[in-house]
Structures are given as C-alpha cells and as structure tokens.
C-alpha cells in the first residue's frame, strides 16, 4: 500500500514541477485507467486539469451520469461531459461493417475532443499544453511489438488515440504499471471500489456489440440486457473473478412464445471471459443457476429479446469482442 502511495506522491511532485502553472487536458471514460490518471492529475494541479467525457450514445445505461457522479462529485475532477449521442448515431446510420464503425467513432471522438480544446480556450482563455493519457505498460509493449498492418486484427480505438496535430505534450503516469498495479494504486488513493474493479470497456462501446446497424432503439435494448447481466454477476459474486462480461445483440430474429402469443424478436448472447492479459482468454464457467436467472430476467424484462445464448468460445481462435 505504501509503495503505491509513494508512487502517487512522487508523480504529483513531478507533475507540479513539469506543468508549473500550465494546463492539462485529458479524455476520460470512467474506466479504471482514466479514472486513476484523472484523480492523480487533479490531486497534482486541481482545476487546471480539464477532463472531457464524450457520450457517444453507445455507452452503458446511465453511464455518463454515473461517471459524472463518481468523478466530479466524489473525486472533484474538473470534468465536462459532451453529449454527442445524436452526432455519433447519425454518422453510424446504415453502417454495418465493424471496421467502419470503429473508424467513424474514433474519428468523431477526435473531432469532438479538438472542439472541446477550442472551447476551453475561447471560454476560459486557457490553452492546454499537455495531454494526460492512461497508457499502461502492456500498451507500450503492444505498440512496439505490433509490426505493421499485417499484425492488426482490429484497429483499436481508445481514449488514447488523439491527433498529433494538436501537438500536446504527453503525460503518462501509469506507463510502467500493469493493470493490477493500477488497481492497487487506485485503492491506495481511496478511489471507490466500483471504479477500481470495473471490467474494461472498448472505446467504440456498444456499437461493436450490436452486430449490424446501430440504432438508438437497438442501443436501448442492449443497454437493458447488459444492465441485468452485470447486476446478476455482481449479486452472485462472480463479477470480480471475470475479466470481462457483456451482452451482444445479434442481427437476426427468432420465434418464441409469450403467454398464448407467438413472438418474433432478437437474440442476444452473453459473453464472460477469464483472462489476465486480454491477449488470450477462456470462456468463464458460469454456474447454470446464474445463467438461468439471467436468461429469465432478460427475456421477461427486456422487450425485444426472446432468446439468450452463452458464448463458449475461447480466444484464440475467437476474439473477446464479436466485432
Ligand atoms: P479482442 O476483441 O481484440 O479484445 O479480443 C481485446 C480487448 O480489447 C478490447 N477492445 C477494444 N478496446 N477500443 C478499445 O479501447 C477498441 O476498439 C477495442 N476493441 C476491442 C476488448 O474489449 C478487450 O478488452
């Protein structure tokens, strides 16, 4: 614990020296990496750190609201939220190709971040010179070992990928840490357990978990199913043993029966994986009784889903996400 407290104090000292009375910007998602980085920065320079949360319309249910509460109210981070749901969903209209979805979301995210930088400059008369990034050691290794496009399986969009044209100087407090060390650091800093133990969530969000076209209606269906599944994992005590858990909405309909009526609705699949590095993963052996509760709750409570499957594929050969 004291090792991590020292780590935090050292970083805070270092950053104060480096930044002086300058300003720093950073994108946050509410995930453990960006939360820990943002809280560290806030402890170092207070409101001269400007955090931006972009709501791309493909976040989990009430996610933007919850992140605002956790980061702004509880951790006092100077955080602004940009609700760009309509803009993202408008651009995603008719798009079904996974890589196109990623490119649209990544590109629009960068535009919005740049616009926010301009807004901070015009509203507050402040120019940010530095960019905070929650890069971890494995990200550093991965970008070194990925040699050219042949190695790229999916173009990952993360809150990290910001344009060189902004010419911001990078601050990466967690460059030497592994994920479990970031969690330790977060705990040592007194950040709430929910933030510290969250599963990773991809930058493109639910857009790559809605196979086929992403619409506001389908986002809502998936958000409801996802909420039930995560709640059930938490209450049954499995959440922390799992590396990542989520629901995927499939682009096909199946026949079912509800009361005396025939239904023709969507199929969804639950995916839970055990992993340490996310490079390989095994499907999690979730007990049948937990699956049974999930299944009956999702099918009864979510209008638009009448069948639930469990993904029993490991990585490789399957990837963790379906797109
Ligand atoms: P895959 O599907 O490649 O996922 O086995 C490995 C890990 O990466 C996450 N992932 C992403 N994260 N932007 C992100 O920030 C992305 O575009 C992206 N695609 C996949 C995935 O959730 C898993 O944790």
TrEMBL record:
EC number: 6.3.5.2
Reactions listed under catalytic activity: XMP + L-glutamine + ATP + H2O = GMP + L-glutamate + AMP + diphosphate + 2 H(+)
EC category: ligase
GO CC aspect terms: cytosol
Domain GMPS ATP-PPase: 2-198
Molecular functions per Gene Ontology: ATP binding; GMP synthase activity; transferase activity
Pathway(s) the chain acts in: Purine metabolism; GMP biosynthesis; GMP from XMP (L-Gln route): step 1/1
Alphabetical keyword list: ATP-binding, Glutamine amidotransferase, GMP biosynthesis, Ligase, Nucleotide-binding, Purine biosynthesis, Transferase
Entry function: Catalyzes the conversion of xanthine monophosphate (XMP) to GMP in the presence of glutamine and ATP through an adenyl-XMP intermediate.
Protein name: GMP synthase [glutamine-hydrolyzing]
